[in-house]
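User: Run a structure prediction on this.
Assistant: Running it now.
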Amino acid sequence: MSAEHEVRAARSLGSRPLGAIAVSLATVLCFTAALGLVFLPAEVRRLAEDEDVGVVSCHFLEGGKRAIVLTRPKSSALQAGLPRQVALHDLTGAEPPTVLISATFEPLIATVSTDNRWLFSAGTKGQIQAIDLHAPNRRPRLLGEQGWGYMGKLECTADGSLVVLGGAGGLCAWDTIKQRRLWQRDDLRLACWALVPNLRRCVVQTDDGAIVELDLQSGLALRTVRVHESTYYWAVFSSDARLLALQGLGGELDVVDFATGESIWPATAAPRLAYHAPNAIAFSPCGRLLVTIARNDLSSLAVWSVETGERLCELRGHHEPVTGTSFTQDGRLHSWGLDGTIRTWDCWAEIGTRVAVLGKRPHSREPGQRPDAALAQSAKEDASALSLACTPSRKGVAVHD
């Protein structure tokens, strides 16, 4: 470029308004960014465009046909500002989801009463809401605020009259009818806890290993069940409240008789291990099976014999880590995960029977193919994979749920 041209260019630039220059620069930057996105590798571009959700928790209604689902966005969607939400999903795909808890509440955890009447949720700022599922369009009731930081677990009694919340600050119970806090225990140094089914009781383990039974109405200790050498991370009862499954931070599993606190599993040289995650341990309704996340594959489930502690098989089908499991009363197992799917399993036949997709579909659908046909094909593919993945051993198991 000649000196004359340089002088002209400088004069031209200097004569432009600063606003026009800024607009021009912004246009160039936007075009460059768009061009860069187009020429990204396919895997990176898919991640950048991804707005999928992962499933945090599920509570099933109508025998598993519908579910109240707490979802969270994946990392890229989180950057786009998409919030967690609680919605009612038709798992058959016949109806669109209905949002039950608004994004402004920022739901962190949720639970549903056994009679499927009440939905309770705790928000990131400590608020506790109640929603009447018989009238979901009504304004949610604010029970109160719990001024703790992290709240790890929320449970309610079968009729929804009491809600128990546990977190970094301890354990507390709320009367949902009078909308007031009944008691709060900050002295427990809580390790894990669970409500005792069909009783107004709660069991906790403190960090010194003591397993203590509390009265739900008062929060007072009724008895010390047993003092264990190990401190556990998660606890869940069988439906008849006879057995308590415990899991440690290292993944070690144990099943104890709640009356005595003694382990019912034969001692082994090596500990029984599963991946430790909240909401990921479930007893079958008959009490003969225990399901956890597999130790070395977070997208698979491990099925254990409650009687012997033997691992019977693994159920594979999720494409990303599993975040929770539960059984329906008819014995069907449900699992959900960060792949945005809710899967239904027949543990005794060791196969998957249904896949409901809340995020992007992991199995592509052919043009013109009905959604239910795609789900059926997905379930068929998963069942084929499962039949190869499961170990055949089911010694002593001959009773179906």
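The chain has a mean pLDDT of 76.
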